[in-house]
Amino acid sequence: MQSLLLKLQADIEARKRRHWDVLATAKSASLGISLALIAFLLGVRAAEGRMDEGGAWMQHLGAALPARPMGLVDLQKAQIDKLTRVQANSSLYGIPADLAERIEDIANAEGIDPKVAFGLVATESEFNRHAVSPVGAVGYTQLMPSTARFFRPDLEREALFDRDTNLRLGFRFLKTLIDKYHGNLKLALLAYNRGPDRVDSLLRAGEDPDNGYARLVLRDWGKRKR
């Protein structure tokens, strides 16, 4: 398992951009560092187990670790699973590994299925951080500055070119729409594309707001590339 982990880590590093934003790099690396530190501490505990049956060491860390901490093998498996997903998404969408990692992490943090998140970014901007639409939508998630300011009133338009800011606010907007439409992902995606006022207006008139956008986002991207 350790050799597989090292192989995956090496492949992920090779897939990352050569020139990283320092802050983005630190955030991207934080998970691996945390996992490695906890794994090391658990490994030390396992080695000392024969000499210390009292459990004082674990009690000392009780406030910092979960009630039922993962073992070293579990931690390595979790890390391998994540690196495998990052590697797969990097290859599937033809994007740097650090971007694939941040899309997954931010989507999970904002309550969005990562598959939907990847489909949204692919459909909206084709993973172009600097994309600007004719009507002024910006960045990876093609967010309008006026919409972004609903979540951050002091936001400057240029901030939407920042990777994490754009992804976070775009996914947060989609989650707000999912909640508005009581979990109906199709309607939420249509409202993301057409605007909630337009979708609501069509629904009140008894018309179908479907324009095919949701199918684009939710399509099987793997089949599209074959």
Write a structural description.
With 226 residues, this protein is mostly helical. Helix content is 65%, strand content 0%. The chain contains 12 helices and no strands. The protein has helices at 2-15, 22-48, 56-60, 72-93, 97-109, 114-125, 145-151, 163-180, 185-194, 196-204, 213-218, 221-225. Helix 2 runs antiparallel to helix 4 (72-93), helix 5 (97-109) packs parallel to helix 8 (163-180) and helix 9 (185-194) packs across helix 10 (196-204).
In short:
The protein has 226 residues and is mainly alpha-helical. It is built from twelve helices and no strands.
Beta-strand fraction estimate: under 5%
Distance between the termini: 31 Å
CA-based gyration radius: 21 Å
Query: Could you say which structural class the secondary elements and strand pairing correspond to?
Result: mainly alpha
* Main sheet properties: none
Got a strand count?
0
Oligomer: single chain
The string of secondary-structure elements, in order, is HHHHHHHHHHHH
Q: Tell me the helix content.
A: 55-70%
Mean pLDDT: 81
Q: Which stretches are poorly predicted, pLDDT < 50 over at least 5 residues?
A: 18-61
What is the count of helical runs? Answer: 12
Shape: globular
Provide keyphrases for this structure.
mainly alpha
Topology:
Blueprint: H1 2-15, H2 22-48, H3 56-60, H4 72-93, H5 97-109, H6 114-125, H7 145-151, H8 163-180, H9 185-194, H10 196-204, H11 213-218, H12 221-225
Helix pairs in contact: 1-4, 2-4, 4-5, 5-6, 5-8, 8-9, 9-10
